[in-house]
Amino acid sequence: MKLPIHKKSNIDLLAKCRLATWLTLALTLTACNESNNTMSNSESNDSQTEQVLPYQDTSLPMNQRVDDLVGRMSLAEKVAQMYNDAPAIERLDVPAYDYWNEALHGVARAGEATVFPQAIGMAAMWDRELLNEIATVISDEGRAKHHAFKERGLSYRYTGLTYWSPNINIFRDPRWGRGQETYGEDPYLTGELGVAFINGLQGDDDTYLKTAATAKHFAVHNGPEVSRHSDDYVVSDKDLFETYLPAFEKAVVEADVEAVMCAYNRVNGAPACGSDRLLKDILRGSYQFDGHVMSDCGAIADFYDPKAHNVTRSPAAAAAWAVKSGTDLNCGTGRLSSYANLTFAVQKGFIEESLIDQAVGRLMMTRFKLGMFDPDSSVPFADIPLEVVGTEEHLALTQKASERSLVLLKNNGVLPLQPGVKVAVIGPNADNQDVLLGNYNGLPVNPVTVLQGIKNYTGNAAVPYAPGSALIDDIYGHWQILDESVLFHRDESGELSPGVKVEYYAVAREAITDFSSLRVPARQTGSAIHSEVLNKLQMRNLRSPVSGKWLDDFAMVASGQLVPQESGSYRFDGPGEVTLNGEVVTGAVELKANESYDFKVSHRVVSNPVSNTAGGLRADWQLRWVNESQALQEQALAKAANADVVVMAVGISPRIEGEEMPVKLEGFNYGDRTSIALPAEQQALIKAVEKLGKPVVLVNFSGSAMALNWEQQNVDAIIQAFYPGEATGTALARILWGEVNPSGRLPVTFYKNLDGFAPLDDYAMANRTYRYFEGDVLYPFGYGLGYSAMQYSNLQAPESLASGEDLTLQVELSNLGEQAASQVTQVYVSMPDAPVDTPKLSLKGFTRTQIGAGEAQTVSLTLSADELVYINEQGQKVPYTGALDVYMGDGQPGYGKPEKVAHTRIDVQ
Question: Model pTM?
């Protein structure tokens, strides 16, 4: 790739040199002298000259090109490149770039994308191959979006190729709100799935990364959310290396993950982003990690924030500390921009500039690997068209993933449903799009709720439905987008017509004073640039309706008449300022049925110069409402009374569990949970419906384990849905009516209660997860039912094994049912002769097998010798010798029928 160098006068160049700051004087003078020499050599040539600098030469090794580029940067330029939103260096043709992007279960926050099940749901698939295929689709859509943005000169947050996924923290406690983002509670399952996902994101090209994956949050990070910026998690070496680190080791050693994000919390006294032991000794030392490390957003500011870790008072010292430990990138320019102090830190001798060079070199190496300094023609992924987003093939894949993620927990024979059965759909999550998606999500292309899926499957548009209750308190799952059924406008003839008129305006940016929120009211004085009639108050468009350009600012005012169909107390939800009859609506408002109200909603979509985001990048605006005064339970009982079967969609939602949320309710604490029971409103609804005497199929949506004790005893069937992606309704209907044989398995333990649990901020693993828990559980890790009975027999294994050898196992799997199945076979081991305490059981292998009705197959699995080790008190891996108990079958031993798990004992010498 060649860059043009234009002739300029020596006087202009020298003038620029004199204006350089003293910190960058030497570098700038060197650049000026080089430019002077170049210009003097070409004075006689009036045409533009071209010179290929080493970092632009694609024939050179990437590390040589990176070194050359970094060597040409001034200190100030290098420091600026150490932010997530790195600015352009125009003189070196380095484009602006924001590293912040998300792809947890689909390309997130960048408009429409195929939305797969939330990570915990993908873990419930227990399927490496399918997860790798999903990640490949995500990276296809991500590449397509990136190049579409690039073609338009856009480098906002969420437009890049550095994805801050996957989250491979261990979901050690069901109260943690962000557990939904993980692959569950087991280090082996998490590690295997993490490798599959990373490989799918990064691709298999020998030269270029397809996208750059990020393993997060390193390390020992599992809540509580409310105190994560100040907590110090004290862990033993045994727990650290036995539970918290194995998945990260696999991500680095086996998947060669490009980036690692360090956590907010301290670990044994040191901030995770300043821990020499974690970042130097383990990550870069033991694991030989050679990619870049970024801070979680604002984590460096926590070093000196008096309300956080407060381990140093100097921002410059904090920045130097983090870089010296190995944190290359500072995320969080919107909160105490810590790395801005690195220039001062170099001046004061807190840090050597060579370490700045090292950090910037790592960051630039990632960008070079992504092909950002090479012609698109050289990068094999640069021609993926935008049309791949949300294709039929991608939507079919997310439906397949949803089907495999749903876990059948109980079935007394009511499932599968018979054709023609009359079904009522009840519950706060029955028509709730939020629970399809989880958090860190994109905008679904074709979202199908439970209600819509059952309507589509049965062909009955009049399926009886009622929400039955709130999710909890005043948080509802049955918000509805305002549409033409209640919105009207006057057409050109003056007649009332369905829909609302929307006018779009240019935004005078100098009038905007508050960029901290995108909910800035639009009070326009100019004329509308464009107008249209919307049938519902929802827009999904990256393009500004004013300029036609992607992500351009604009304002909108929708106006017309609102005519409610039912009297009640209504609450609105969505960005913008709503007025009724000229009065601004600030809370619930009483409205009468069939009465007409002058309606207006105003909203601005503007970019934020502080965080370098664009409101338009979210590409989604909608206004919803809910009638809070309805008799929800009574309506539900009336709808269910005449049904043959009641499908109840209950649970919680990502609006009340998740990352550091402003939610403080009974059972919920700022994103985490203090109870694992269903909210009281929903328990009352389920019991009332059960009293009708109808068969009840309970579908629970949650990102975490729920104590469904009464429900297990009293309802007829239970399906755990987690947050199953945009094809949820379609997938669920196919399972309910038996077109698909359920095959999901739990990636977490479902406990009966929290008795015996240590506080959430206690990181000792005693009595946590299936590997250490001493009590009875409701549903064990690895559990799940299907419609076909399975039998395992004739387990083949050596009687003895030399320590350090791989272990190969074979078992006969028989499908005794009348329906083909996709069966998950699991292998657990226990080490009773270990000289230290070891887990009661540990998962060490799993596979999926497609098996026809009445068929038998031999299933083979090989356990790596690296897995047949125990961790001593010093955190070291020690090859195990002694009796090794091996269990192979449909889950853990001790649950269900004996024929579902085969056992053998091997003498390891």
Answer: 0.93
